[in-house]
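Researcher: Structure for this, please.
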Amino acid sequence: MTWPPQHALATPDEINRVVTELWPGGASGAATATGPTWAIVAMTPEAQTLRPGAIISGPTVFGLADCALWYALFASVGIEPMALTSELSIRYLRPARGTTLYARADVHHAGRRSVIGSVRCWMDSPTGDGVASVAVAQGTYVRPS
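Model: Predicted structure, token format:
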């Protein structure tokens, strides 16, 4: 298989179905869109994820960024549920306030053993166009051998 693919190798419906089947406790967010090397994920924060001032907690934002990169891996190389986070770093840019948190992950490299990408998180806009980021992250996933 050549990389990058010409089209997404997993649709949002396929990703959400597989994750729901394999992880009954649920992931941080649901896939809303995918492309050949990217995925967009959304989540509505629950009361326990909010800090004073109705700010979504840092661990919640981090979890969504991690989830988005996992889903982007699925879109780029196919569904590999046993792919594991090798490293992920995040920078929080401003408080995450709003009703829906979104993250878009872009895969920059997909090799035989690892997938490397970056993530942008924002609030309350399905596309993120013209909306300030609340966090940015970069990370690596290790593919199963």
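Researcher: Any notable elements?
Model: Strands lie at 30-35, 38-43, 50-51, 55-56, 84-92, 101-110, 114-123, 133-142. The helical segments are 12-22, 58-77.
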